Amino acid sequence: MATEAPPPPRKDTETDRGPGSPTTEQFVEVQEGAEFGELRRTYRSFAFPLTIAFIAWYLLYVLLSNYAGGFMGTKLFGNINVALVLGLGQFLTTFLIAWLYSRHAANRLDPKAEAIRTRMEGDA
């Protein structure tokens, strides 16, 4: 359902900036700075290894399900087999990774990002 409303008017970046809004040049300067580089390194050093580990764990589960049916069907106790335990482990690791990332972000990323934001809004 489309409307016939015209697009909002474009703001002149220099004259219509709100109070505390950094310019494009200030954003580029901060992005090229050491402090922002450290923030990105901190994020990447956590996110990339954990992402690779989780994808490997997921692919192992899929490959075992496809090619090791006998192993995955091994009963551990009652009607609980290896496939069920590993499948539930996928959910457990998903929640664990989300919790670890939340802690990592709160302790290491958010303070650095807040410092950058505060400095940029104060300089504008």
Report on this structure:
- The protein has 124 residues and is mainly alpha-helical.
- Helix content is 71%, strand content 4%.
- It contains four helices and two strands.
- A two-stranded antiparallel sheet has the order 1-2.
- Helix 2 runs antiparallel to helix 4.
- It is elongated.
- The model has no long low-confidence stretch (mean pLDDT 87).
- Which structural class do you get from the secondary structure elements? mainly alpha
Counting DSSP H or I runs of 4 or more residues, the number of helices is 4
- End-to-end Cα distance, whole Å, is 40 Å
What percent of the residues sit in helical stretches (DSSP H or I)? over 70%
Mean pLDDT: 87
Main sheet: strand order: 1-2
Quote the beta fraction.
under 5%
Rg (CA only): 24 Å
Write down the secondary-structure element order.
HHHEEH
Report the biggest beta sheet as strand number plus sense, adding barrel if it closes: 2 strands, antiparallel
| Gross morphology | elongated
- Low-confidence parts: none
> Would you report the number of β strands?
2
